[in-house]
Specification:
The complex is a heterodimer of chains A (1056) and B (338). In chain A, α4 packs across α22. Helices cover 31% and strands 29% of the residues of chain A. The longest helix of chain A has 29 residues. In chain A, the strands form ten sheets. In chain A, strands 4-1-8-7 form a four-stranded antiparallel beta sheet. Chain A has a four-stranded antiparallel beta sheet with strand order 3-2-5-6, with no helix packed on it. Chain A has a four-stranded mixed beta sheet with strand order 9-11-12-10. Chain A is an alpha+beta fold. Chain A is globular, with a radius of gyration of 29 Å. Among the domains of chain A are: 159 residues, C2 domain (Immunoglobulin-like); 169 residues, no CATH class; 396 residues, no CATH class. Chain B has 338 residues and is mostly helical. Chain B folds into three domains: 68 residues, no CATH class; 129 residues, no CATH class; 106 residues, no CATH class. Chain B has 19 helices and one strand. The chains are: A alpha+beta (1056), B mainly alpha (338). Chains A and B meet through β26, α19, β31 and α23 of A and β1 and α4 of B.
Chain lengths: 1056, 338
């Protein structure tokens, strides 16, 4: 599809003063695509020029359209000397190429200069007209859509997951070319930015081709990395999952479809019936309709009475116990008749539907589970209705999986029923030397490296008896000429086509999820390291015995996996000294140390998780970083208690000689104390029953529920119960200890003892939750609004390697201070990156999103009134926040409506707790690392944006030091991203990620340079609660009427 | 502890802590501000390490520094991409940035807004107890507003509001300050020291509304800060009141109208002084045609009107009644009847 690109330059504003004598500028604009350049006239003596140019036309084949960025350069005209550059705008044309696109973008773009940052703005309009061309031998992949989002994009149905696609291109880095010695820093930076942009386009184009070859039309879970290898060049790598997406027909309620809710099983009829049954029950409950608001509140409170912070009490009784709040003004009948009402009932409907079979299942008992992972509380309910029942067809069949070269999927969120077993994390690393590449420009060497690594992963996966690797990612770390390549993923068994059908017929998908892999091979914990090519690989398996009691995963918590209580951030940090060696010696040393690092990391994760009383770790990421004298490993994940698995045993301490028993006991006591404290804090209640039998499981839960209900009467009793639990588990523990010979922590000297006390993290203050997954396990329903998305860059000198771990605590603490105005909130999707720029210097980059937590129940707006959704887990949270002031509240459960208790809760609520409500006004552009926008639903994907910024300054001291430099740079980076999203007609960017933040500082020259790579999906979001949807629609239709509006705009500007 | 080289936190939404913004405007150092923040939010931050609070304050301070260039031309604030700020916060930022301490402005009032006077601000700072940084900001704000509206025609308050997006009350204040600055009124003589900023504010505002030309088709090129020349010329005609025949009539009628409203003793004293008083008033009025005399307006009023009246122990209400009648009566006199 060759195409025509038309560009019009309308005006500029707030340009910098380039002519000091007259305090103005004589600006003109150069527009360049490929080798064609156009210029506007010079607009003299103005800082707000109005060019109103004609449409500049470029003709380009689609290969060029995909690879080349449109370059807009704003210049200051100078009669006597060379014209001065004011700045540039790079426009990636890819978002305009897919066929659903408006093919137009326009708006004010910040003019960016690598030496000065943003210098005013330019108003541009860009249009692309594509001609169809069915050349079979084409080199382009126009029209293949890319999504950074790690799940199936909202509004689409996934027809097939086709497999892993990857691409890698290598080029000279302009910074290291000979010409760099004679050109200005600006020229060099711009050469780099332009090149990086081109390479990024090229990688995407090539991956698109591969996706097309596989028969797909989109790539999701896309990740792209820039490896700055230095002398040996620049490598741009992309990985993703090729899929076939079709736009799902929007349901009557205009709610977006989301995959998770596509019920795989039971016929439409059945579940529909159930919905109505369910509704009916709800209605009966609230028949004495038209409650005054107060009553509503008391109802909400009552919810908390009969929900308990354990899993799955919910649907045990035949009547749905979740209380519904209530647009009490709306006539009840609406819900029965209107299909719009139905979805609003939400996740519970899905879960209740299987009830018709008369069986009760774990998976369905916890409303929290059934929601899809990629959407917030509100729209998760999206499509419980019959509208979206179009079945998945995964092209992954047993045969299919074997046919795939690499059965890897980069996605992290999956449709219900896809995963059958979860094996565990597989991980593989290798250390390579860059200066041994024979032909630097040749991608083959790196291709081979990655191939080795992938094969390794594949064989680990197979040795676990699994057939696929999910949540797969690849990373590099470069230090001088040594590069560490890592690949990590979660080995799973996917439900194949045939099995799936069986499952569909007989049992709902949720049942089979957490059958844990039993045939473990212990010998996988091997580590083989060769030398030259230095290669170290190891696979670690998160099991300590035959029966897995701990599960590690790189994926998001699967929607159907039952979770008890709330999750929390688990982080392991290891820092070791390294000799100051170079080249091969260095590579060997690293390679030798890696197994120890991995072991240490694993040990820390395991014991931290156990101290938290949790047994599952989601969203695990691992980073190995090498510096001049330090070697660092960082692993981050979100711990949670998976209801279906046995409770973890508290870590036991054992000692060699030389440590006093009293000290040992002290440590052990400390551990037990924090375990029980954590259990209470995170709402984990242990039921030590194996998940082998649903019936028994259910029964125990029921009984424990009863037990808890009794405990209602007296707090003391409950506490007793807890203690009993404790004892019994300890007993269990000691038995198992004998059985398995499992000793977790060994204290051999005082240093070890210190480390152990470090395992017990400092408390998270009230009002905050922290996780690195998108959804905090157990808090799905409470996400009400996106409050902030932040990036923090922190760099400090270490005096000893021991301080390393403290840096993270310090950063978290500082985040709590900085975000204190936003409580109650959840810090989600935290991404930590460590760099070791210089000797003893550690740089941490943290990016995350702050989501406001709402009270329960909160209203789901569905257009017409709303049904409010209470959630068990939600109330757990609430109780927990309350519990600090009143313990009794935490432990009270009652099925009957005890008026006395109600009043207590109401009182407590009114007393102090503040909750966020979805804002009714949304202004500006939201950026979020999540793949959804809380309180909104993604109406439209506008394409993805990938920016590589370079900023340099030779007056660091004058611009507020390194802090001032970074502060303004990061602010501007966000600003440019927002401007481009807006120009595409969007109002948000999802799946935002900052893959690179390199900061070079030369204090003697007062000079610094920073490189940032930032990317995400530009989207248009409709907010449930907003008055502004209308306005957005209007803007959109305006964009549709494009040319007219641009002319209008031009006219408006001319009046200024 | 270790040495921290970089510590920055940037949010997509620029959230402003009004309290910390206040400390920044007042010119506090980050450490001082952090101390105050901890005191204010002791229940939350009581046990928090000081450096963490300082780090938060510094984040905010850096944002303010970067915002400052937009605050200096507030219309740009809404147009820029760099900081995503809700319009409510934008208003707050601008309003607080342009807010000033009356005592500081009182010192600057009527002075030439020159670089030299800016350098002398440390005296002002010392005298008022307001930090130098804050004094400089206030000085620069006045100067900036003055420079912007200097050559604009039309309503002064309105101009300030549109160019600086200020709320009306603040725009009015600036209008008066700028008015005083433009006319270079002397306000710092020792005799005028007792006058507060509000006193000048009131006077200048009255002058602005009553003495300026509001006719858009005026033949003179007058801004809202200049006095209406036609009006000033008309003031010359008042001299006729000093002529004997009119003065006597004027005096008699004033005395008559004041009878019973002012104590006899004061009336007696007033009667004795009325001639010189009336002359002073009328001379000041007609003198307004000469810019040199305009500058001394306040001084003249104090010296030649207020002080003599004080001497005869007239009260404020006496003064009001007297002046009211003094100015109303001539309307009925022969030369002004038309």
């Amino acid at each position: 599809m060759p195409g025509k690109v038309k560009v019009r330059v309308l005006a500029g504003r707030n340009l910098p003063v380039m002519d000091k004598s007259s305090d103005t500028s004589d600006a003109f604009v150069e527009v360049k695509l490929g080798n064609t350049t156009y210029k506007t006239e010079v607009f003299r003596h103005s800082l707000n020029p109005y060019w109103n140019s004609e449409w500049f036309r470029f003709e380009a084949d689609d290969e060029e359209l995909q690879d080349e960025p449109l370059q807009i350069r704003i210049m200051d005209y100078d009669t006597y000397s060379a014209n001065d550059a004011i700045g540039k705008v790079y426009i990636d044309l890819n978002p305009l190429l897919h066929k659903d696109s408006m093919h137009i973008m326009f708006g004010w773009f910040p003019i960016y200069d690598t030496m000065h940052g943003i210098r005013g703005e330019v108003h541009l309009a860009v249009k692309v007209d594509l001609f169809s061309d069915s050349n079979r031998y084409r080199q382009s992949s126009c029209g293949v859509r890319f999504f950074y989002s790690p799940g199936i994009p909202t509004g689409y149905t996934c027809q097939a997951i086709l497999g892993f696609v990857e691409e890698l291109v290598v080029n000279d880095d302009p910074e290291y070319q000979w010409i760099d010695k004679i050109r200005t820093p600006r020229a060099s930076n711009e050469a780099r930015q332009t090149l990086f942009s081109k390479l990024s386009g090229e990688v995407k184009r090539k991956i698109g081709l591969k996706a097309l070859d596989l028969g797909g039309n989109s790539v999701i879970g896309y990740r792209q990395c820039f490896d700055l290898e230095g002398e040996s060049g620049i490598v741009v790598r992309g990985i993703g999952t090729a899929v076939t997406l079709v736009k799902s027909e929007s349901s009557s309620s205009r709610r977006h479809h989301n995959y998770g809710s596509t019920p795989t099983g039971t016929g439409i009829q059945g579940s529909k019936l159930d919905e109505y049954e369910y509704l009916f029950i709800l209605l009966i409950r609230f028949m004495p309709a038209s409650f005054p608001i107060q009553t509503t509140n008391s109802n909400e409170d009552q919810t908390s009475n009969f929900t308990i912070p354990t899993a799955s009490k919910g649907n045990l009784s035949s009547s749905p116990p979740e209380s519904v709040t209530t647009p009490l003004t709306a006539p009840a009948g609406v819900y029965l008749t209107s299909p719009i009402g139905a979805p609003s009932i939400g996740p519970k409907m899905l879960t209740t539907s299987p009830k018709s079979t008369g069986m009760h299942r774990r998976g369905s008992s916890d409303p929290d589970l059934s929601t899809t992972p990629n959407c917030g509380s509100n729209h998760s309910s999206g499509s419980g209705s019959a509208g979206n029942k179009s079945a998945f067809k995964f092209m992954i069949s047993p045969e299919g999986i074997h046919l795939l070269e690499y059965p890897f999927i980069t996605m992290k969120q999956f449709p219900v029923g896809l995963i059958q077993h979860i094996g565990g994390v597989v991980c593989s690393r290798s250390v390579k030397l860059l200066d041994q590449i024979n032909n630097p420009d040749d991608p083959e060497t790196r291709d081979t490296w990655w191939m080795e690594l992938r094969k390794e992963i594949r064989s680990h996966c197979r040795s676990l008896g699994c057939n696929a690797v999910l949540g797969y990612s690849e990373n590099t770390n470069i230090c001088d000429e040594v590069v560490i390549l890592s690949a990590i993923g979660t080995a799973v068994t996917l439900t194949t086509e045939k099995e799936k059908r069986e499952v569909d017929q007989n049992t709902p998908p949720s049942k089979s999820t957490v059958k844990t892999e039993q045939s473990m091979k212990k010998d996988c914990n091997t580590c083989d390291s060769h030398y030259a090519p230095v290669n170290c690989t190891l696979c670690h398996i998160p099991y300590t015995g035959k029966v897995p009691d701990i599960l590690f995963m790189t994926i998001e918590p699967p929607a159907e996996m039952p979770i008890t209580g709330i999750g929390c951030l688990i982080q392991a940090r290891v820092c070791r000294y390294k000799r100051d060696s170079k080249g091969e010696q260095c590579a060997k040393e690293i390679s030798d140390s890696l197994p120890f690092l991995e072991y240490e990391i694993h040990r820390q994760l395991l014991s931290k998780l156990k101290v938290k009383g949790m047994n599952g770790l989601f969203g695990l990421t691992m980073q190995i970083s090498v510096g001049d004298n330090l070697l660092i490993a960082l692993a981050t994940g979100t711990g949670a208690y998976i209801s279906a698995m046995p409770p973890p045993h508290p870590p036991q301490v054992s000692s060699g000689k030389g440590v006093q028993t009293s000290k040992l006991n002290e440590i052990q006591k400390l551990i037990f104390e924090s375990v029980s404290k954590n259990r209470e804090h995170y709402g984990l209640i242990h039921s030590s029953v194996q998940p082998s039998n649903d019936q028994t499981y259910e029964k125990t839960l029921y009984s424990s529920c009863n037990k808890d209900m009794n405990s209602n009467d007296s707090i003391n009793q409950t506490k007793l119960n807890l203690i009993e639990d404790e004892e019994s588990s300890e007993l269990d523990k000691s038995e198992e200890m004998i059985n398995k010979g499992q000793v977790l922590l060994e204290v051999d000297d005082t240093e070890d003892a210190d480390i152990i006390s470090l395992m017990i993290d400092s408390d998270i203050p009230e009002g905050y939750e922290v996780c690195n997954t998108e959804i905090m396990p157990g808090l799905r329903h409470l996400y009400v609004c996106n409050l902030q998305t932040f990036a923090q860059v922190y760099r400090a000198k270490l005096n000893t390697s021991k301080q390393f771990g403290h840096q993270f605590d310090w950063i978290l603490q500082s985040l709590f201070v900085k975000l204190r105005r936003l409580v109650p909130c959840c810090l989600t999707d935290l991404k930590f990156t460590v760099d070791l720029p210089e000797t003893d210097l550690v740089q941490l980059t943290v990016m995350g999103s702050v989501v406001g937590l709402g009270s329960l129940p909160h209203t789901l707006t569905t257009g017409k009134g709303g049904v409010t959704l209470p959630s068990q887990v939600g109330s757990t949270f609430r109780k927990r926040t309350l519990s600090s002031s009143d313990q009794s509240d935490d432990l009270v459960f009652s099925m009957d409506e005890d008026p006395k208790f109600e009043s207590v809760v109401t009182e407590l609520n009114s007393k102090e707790i503040f909750y966020h409500n979805p804002p009714t006004e949304h202004s500006g552009i939201e950026l979020t690392p999540l793949s959804f926008v809380p309180d909104g639903h993604i109406h439209y994907y506008l394409g993805n944006l990938d920016f590589f910024f370079i900023r340099e300054s030779t007056s660091i001291r004058e611009s507020g030091g390194l802090n001032g430099f970074m502060h303004s740079f990061l602010s501007e980076v966000f600003a440019i991203v927002r401007a481009h999203v807006a120009a595409l007609g969007g109002n948000a960017m999802t799946a935002l990620h900052l893959t690179q933040c390199v900061l070079l500082y030369n204090p003697h020259k007062n000079q610094s340079q920073c490189l940032i790579n930032i990317a995400g999906d530009a989207v248009m979001v409709h907010y449930h609660n907003s008055k502004q949807n209308m306005a957005i629609n209007k803007i959109h239709s305006e964009i549709n009427a494009n040319e007219g509006i641009i002319n209008e705009e031009a006219e408006n500007l001319s009046h200024l | 502890m270790m040495f921290t080289e970089v510590d920055v936190f940037i949010g997509n939404n620029t959230l402003i802590d009004p309290q910390i913004y206040g400390y920044w405007l007042q010119g506090f150092m980050a450490q001082e501000a952090a101390k105050l923040v901890r005191e204010k939010e002791f229940h939350l931050l009581g046990n928090i390490h000081e450096d963490l609070i300082i780090s938060d304050v510094l984040d905010q301070f850096r944002t303010f520094c970067l915002l400052e260039k937009y605050l200096q031309s507030p219309t740009m604030l809404a147009d820029q991409w760099t900081f995503q700020i809700t319009s409510k916060t934008q208003r707050l930022l601008v309003e607080k940035y342009y807010d000033f301490d009356d005592c500081v402005i009182r010192e600057i009032l009527g002075k030439k807004l020159s670089g030299r006077n800016r350098k002398d601000l440390d005296d002002v700072s010392e005298k008022t107890g307001v930090r130098l940084k804050s004094c400089r900001r206030q000085f620069d704000n006045v100067k900036r507003v003055y420079k912007t509206v200097e050559d604009l025609s039309g309503n002064l308050v309105h101009n300030i509001q549109t160019h600086f997006l200020l709320p009306e009350f603040l725009a009015k204040k600036y209008a008066t300050v700028v008015y005083i600055a433009n006319n270079r009124f002397e306000t710092n003589k020792r005799k005028l020291q007792y006058l507060k900023f509000d006193d000048f504010l009131h006077c200048a505002y009255e002058m602005m509304t009553n003495w300026s030309c509001h006719n858009p088709d005026c033949r003179f090129e007058e801004t809202a800060m200049d006095m209406d020349r036609e009006f000033l010329q008309m003031l010359r005609d008042l001299k006729i009141l000093l002529e004997k025949e009119y003065f006597d009539e004027h005096k008699a009628m004033v005395a008559k109208s004041l009878k019973g409203k002012i104590s006899d003793r004061i009336l007696y004293d007033l009667d004795a002084n009325l001639k010189s008083l009336s002359r002073s008033i009328i001379n000041i009025a007609s003198g307004l045609n000469h810019s040199k005399e305009v500058r001394d307006l306040f001084l003249d009023v104090v010296e030649k009107i207020i002080e003599p009246c004080k001497q005869i122990r007239m009260t404020r209400s006496d003064m009001e009644v007297f002046l009211h009648n003094y100015t109303e009566i001539p309307r009925t006199l022969e030369p002004f009847k038309s």
